[in-house]
Amino acid sequence: MKQVTHFHPALRVLHWLMATAILAMLFIGVAMVSTVSSLHALLVSLHKPLGLMILLLVLVRLWLRFFTATPPLPRSIPGWQRGLAHLSHWILYALMLAQPLIGWAMLSAAGYPITIGAGIVLPPLLPVNNDVYALLR
Fold this sequence. Notes:
- By secondary structure, this protein is mainly alpha-helical.
- It is built from 4 helices and 2 strands; from the N terminus they run αααββα.
- It has a two-stranded antiparallel ribbon.
- It is elongated and about 55 Å long.
- It starts with 8 loop residues before the first helix and ends with a helix.
- The model has no long low-confidence stretch (mean pLDDT about 90).
């Protein structure tokens, strides 16, 4: 792969789009679990599709990351710091993949369907488990 000095523009756009979406999810999630007002239903209806969007965006981002050149870290960084930087980078990717999947699995186990626009219902990831259902009620 050729040497580059900047990240691909699509990776930069995805980075900032995902950063915004993840921060929005954080605030929506906190507000969603701390309110019993009429806003709760609206927040839940925003939370589910936004989680799915984050899952799809991280998959696109990973695909781009594997197939586009990225700039190297500065040579002045010691090898152990370079290794930790790469490790933390991949841990963040794993967490960005895991979090939406965990939410989807929890809702599946509780028996709640995930409905996104136009009446599309996502298949459950796990069978219904009454113990999980009791926790989420």
